[in-house]
Amino acid sequence: MKETMFVDPQRCIGCRSCVAACRECSTHKGFSMIFVDYFDRAETTATMPTICMHCVEPTCALVCPADAIKMTEDGIVMTALKPRCLDCRNCVNACPFGVPKYNSQMHLQMKCDMCFDRTSEGLKPMCASVCPTGALSFGTYEQIVPLRRTKPVNVHVFGNQRVETKVYLMLPTDSDEVSVEGVDAADPAIHESWIDTQAEETDKSNQF
Amino acid sequence: MTQTRGEAQARGGNEGMNYRNPTVLGIAAAAILTILVVVGSRNLEHFDPALFGYTIASIVALGAIVFRYALWLQRPATRAYFWRGLDLFFKRKKLAKNTATAAGTIATNIVEQRFIFKRSRQRWLMHLLIMWGCILSALITFPLSWGWVHFKLEGDRGYRAYLFGFPTVVMDGRSVLAWIQFHALDFTAVMVLAGCAIAIHRRLKDRGAIASQTFLLDFTPHMLLIAVSVSGLMLTASSLWFAGYMYSFISLSHQALVIMTLFYLPFGKLFHIVQRPASIGVELYQQRSREMEQAVCPRCGTMFSGQLWIDDLKKVVGQLGFDYRMGDGHTLQDYCPRCKRILRGHAYAGLAEKSEPVFYGDRMKMHDERLP
């Protein structure tokens, strides 16, 4: 599959259509695997959608003790195999993007698998098919990139770790990578604002 | 200095699989079972030569399963969990409590399988039928084919079962109980068939299942189980209603199919039978770590997991060749999942404030070789 996802947070209006549509995906029926988070709710209404970035070397799959997370030949990192997943939550806490979700009653991890039931049949993923602004787009590099004035980047740097992904993030500047740093004590802006502390507990631990 | 995982592994030397220990363990397990077969059948006195094929296949399959299990334990995460689970279980002051937790997990997860019920009722029923059908069949057939159980006729109708060479109670060979016992494998075969029917129906109808299933992983085990059950039922039918017509051929086919299923155990989906009980250790670990110091997210202050557990995870992540240490002295895994998303959001939003020029797109057409 040559197609992939292109995420452009600049375009996200926080409508959460993707969150609703994601529940319709047949591989995780009824549960949404996408996140739409506020950057800093006290300062701005800006939101950021997070889907699985489908890492080239997925940390989640490698830290899985049960070897339950498999990759397809196309580089799609699949949701955990149901007979194997032990609900240990290694993947949930190891993922650099904070993507996998778990349910302790079902003893199950689930994550975005780029709507494998749809994309394997040539359809767009649910989120990309409903996103009204193109913040989430699905297509080939050649199809999507010439239409945009943003730069596709598929490299994140978390501290010392460089993570390459199948999914692209569209950047407004000419950077080649997104460098994520931890909380800098000197910069209060990056600390959580009072209003974000109201977020649901489950939202913080990724329980679905 | 940033790194990719491949670079880190190249520097640290690629940690390959060690095949020696699993091989030794596998052979040892097979040898122990062989000794038990000889001892249990009293020097093969009560061993049924007609079941020789099953005996050899089960011994080889056990060796293969132990080999595969030992290989599986070499995964850094599995190894960490395995040892931590044992370590926590044998904490002297908590042994009684841990035994109670483990017993509770066995009851709800392995016997009742409540977690499958929560996933889907249909799946739960399907799994219950297949699992108990297989477990009961194994409990009957393995001791028989290893010579651990044999029967002797006492009087006209009395059957006495001998377990490991020791006599048990006498049973009336014409009683209802005896009839149920003699036909137990027929009942379990029907259970397995019903379960497989539900599973295959789901695999043919469910869109999610259709998209992700593979023939070798998801259909082969059902085919094997159906073939074993049907050929087993044919044995009963042949002896009851067709005066033993084609009995030896059916018997040989049944044996071949059972052996194939036994040899499939270490590879495919059926490996979860031996893998799944690891959830007892995982649950124990989670319960105990809940009582210990909690990991606090450095950004939002949420307690999102046990500290011991996060520390173990960080070690595993390091062993795998990743280096997620951040400039602020934390490791990325110290942050709760939501804060990881927010930190990335801030990194993205902060790009505009950095010195890089604004990207206007047209440059892309001139320099990107991937575009026509």
Please give the share of residues in helix of chain A: 10-25%
User: What is the makeup of the main sheet of chain B?
Assistant: 3 strands, antiparallel
Question: Would you list the SSEs of chain A in sequence order as H and E?
Answer: EHEEHHEEHHEHEEEH
Number of strands of chain A: 9
Largest interface: A-B, 91 and 89 residues
Side by side, the strands of the main sheet of chain A go: 6-1-8-7-9
Gyration radius from CA atoms of chain A, angstroms: 17 Å
Order of helices and strands of chain B: HHHHHHHEEEHHHHHHHEEHHH
Through-space gap between termini of chain B = 35 Å
**What number of domains of chain A?**
1
Unreliable stretches of chain B, pLDDT < 50, 5 or more residues? Answer: none
List the helices and strands and how they pair.
The complex is a heterodimer of chains A (208) and B (372).
Chain A (H helix, E strand, L loop, with lengths): L3 E4 L9 H6 L12 E4 L8 E4 L8 H5 L26 H5 L6 E3 L4 E3 L5 H4 L6 H5 L5 E4 L1 H4 L6 E8 L2 E11 L6 E3 L20 H5 L3
Chain B lengths: L4 H8 L7 H21 L11 H21 L3 H14 L5 H17 L2 H6 L1 H25 L3 E6 L3 E6 L2 E7 L3 H7 L1 H22 L1 H6 L2 H27 L5 H18 L7 H4 L2 H14 L2 E3 L6 E4 H13 L17 H13 L12 H6 L5
Antiparallel strand pairs in B: 1-2, 2-3, 4-5
Helix pairs in contact in B: 2-3, 3-12, 4-14, 4-15, 5-14, 7-9, 9-11, 11-12
Structural key phrases:
heterodimer; A: 208 residues; Alpha-Beta Plaits; five-stranded mixed beta sheet; two-stranded antiparallel ribbon; 7 helices; 16% helix; globular; B: mainly alpha; three-stranded antiparallel beta sheet; 17 helices; 5 strands
Written account of the structure:
The complex is a heterodimer of chains A (208) and B (372). With 208 residues, chain A is α/β, with parallel strands linked by helices. Helices cover 16% and strands 21% of the residues of chain A. Chain A has a single domain, classed as Alpha-Beta Plaits (2-Layer Sandwich). The longest helix of chain A is centred in the first third of the chain and has 6 residues, at 17-22. Chain A has helices at 17-22, 59-63, 90-94, 116-119, 126-130, 141-144, 201-205; strands at residues 4-7, 35-38, 47-50, 101-103, 108-110, 136-139, 151-158, 161-171, 178-180. Chain B has 372 residues and is mainly alpha-helical. Chain B folds into two domains: 13-280, no CATH class; 293-367, no CATH class. Helix content of chain B is 65%, strand content 7%. In chain B, the strands form two sheets. Chain B has a three-stranded antiparallel beta sheet with strand order 1-2-3. Chains A and B meet through helix 2, helix 3, helix 4, strand 7 and strand 8 of A and helix 4, helix 6, helix 10, helix 14 and helix 15 of B.
